[in-house]
Write a structure and sequence with these properties.
Helices cover 75% and strands 3% of the residues. By secondary structure, it is mostly helical. The chain has one domain. The protein has a two-stranded antiparallel sheet with strand order 1-2. A hairpin with an 8-residue loop joins strand 1 and strand 2. The longest helix has 60 residues. It is rod-shaped.
Length: 285
């Protein structure tokens, strides 16, 4: 009796390759920005030449008699360098997200690109559609290219039914999409976090400044000099609030801008997947 060998099950190989990306910036940038924030506060705003007099050296030297509005910010307290570092962190991730989202948007309008691909597919010219993907680039172009490769393979496949071929194309698009979306949304959490905590840090610095101002008032003997000292202390403390609110407002604006752009790219990706499946189902029944 002849020996029967088991038939090997051939699994479809995806053309989508996982992207290797380092997120070291999310670990390094906040620390570096906080250090730079302290340097700006300590040696820039707190430069002895910006004040009438004060102590020399130390982590947080005393200064009195500021000459400019920026030097008054130094007197806002130790929360000021943290707020400066937070603002610099926000700027860093805004630049990083801008470069990433701009690259993911592609070289031309995604709507025009999808229309060109639809035209080529309607004429059964898959190679021309792939050439359009190479020109477009970006997330929509990458997803469309991955789907078109599977689309081309399914045209010559005689083993699967039309429904199975459409499902294979759809699966390829979903796998490509799952690799593109995390790259778009990465590090947005830093902008949303900064938008939430910057105002709170500013209020914390203001409260600490008010405590210090009222403590100095209580230690004084009273009189008009004490009232003037209190008003100066309150104005210095409010620099924290201004810096915190300004940082938070900028973070909210840029977060909304990026999420809107990402929503547009996501819509283009969904439309590209729909285009491929519908085109194949109608042309290759």
């Amino acid at each position: 009796m002849a020996e029967t060998k088991p038939t090997a099950t051939v699994k479809p190989v995806t053309s989508v390759q996982a992207k290797k990306s380092s997120n070291a910036i999310s670990l390094i940038a906040p620390v570096v920005c906080l250090i730079i924030g302290y340097i700006i506060w300590r040696f820039g705003l707190g430069n002895p030449s910006n004040f009438d007099h004060g102590t020399a050296g130390g982590f947080w030297p005393d200064r009195e008699g500021p000459h400019t509005a920026l030097s008054k910010m130094y007197l806002g307290g130790i929360i000021v360098p943290i707020l400066i570092g937070t603002f610099l962190t926000m700027i860093t991730f805004v630049i990083e997200r801008f470069l990433t989202v701009s690259k993911a948007t592609g070289t031309a309008s995604n709507a025009d690109f999808i229309r060109k691909v639809q035209y080529h597919l309607a004429n059964k010219n898959v190679d021309a559609a792939l050439a359009e993907c190479d020109k477009q680039k970006g997330s929509v172009g990458n997803v469309m290219k991955a789907g078109l490769h599977r689309y081309k393979d399914m045209i010559s496949n005689a083993e699967l039914s039309t429904e199975q071929k459409v499902m294979a194309i759809q699966k390829e698009v979903e796998e490509a999409t799952s690799l593109e979306l995390p790259m778009l949304e990465k590090n947005l959490v830093f902008l949303s976090t900064i938008a939430s905590i910057a105002t709170l840090l500013g209020l914390l610095g203001t409260v600490l400044g008010m405590i210090r101002a009222f403590s100095n008032l209580g230690a004084d003997s009273g009189g008009s000099g004490a009232a003037a000292q209190l008003s100066v202390g309150i104005s210095e403390a409010l620099y924290n609030t201004a810096l915190g609110i300004g940082t938070s407002a900028c973070a909210i604006v840029f977060y909304n801008i990026f999420t809107t752009k990402i929503d547009g790219i996501t819509y283009g990706i969904d439309e590209s997947g729909f285009t491929l499946t519908q085109s194949f189902a109608s042309l290759y029944k």
